[in-house]
Target: YbaK/EbsC family protein
Amino acid sequence: MAIANTLAGRLSRMNSQFEIIRHPYSLSSMATAQAAHVPGNRLAKTVLLEDQAGYVAAVIPSNHHLRLSEICEQTGRDLVLAHEDEIREVFKDCDLGAIPPVAMSYGMPTYVDECLMEEPEIWFEAGDHEELVHMQRDQFMALMSDAQRGRFSHRMM
Model:
């Protein structure tokens, strides 16, 4: 599978400068970081949440855990982890578990953890389990300009 069409469209509209990095097939964000030789704090992972009003995406470093209570407080919503079978309908151009952080392009509110904005460069899923997008911080910040920012994750021990 190539880069997700929705992501490719956003990258083009935002005139993003990036490169595609291929890596051995992996299913988890930490395994992806290892396979691609990327520091876990620089690999963005997208966690999908839901409530009766719909979906919300939280973008955090792959070596972090989401603090659900803090994202709920920030959004003012009673969110839970989204069910994977329903996610397929929203992210039709992505493999399950390889969702890029640009969830706003899929029509949902998106929140990005501030700690990602402190890194000089960021990698993230391109829509499959074998390719990552790599870009500099300023390019990532521009790409995520429609997302709200906050602190709602903590580093895993």
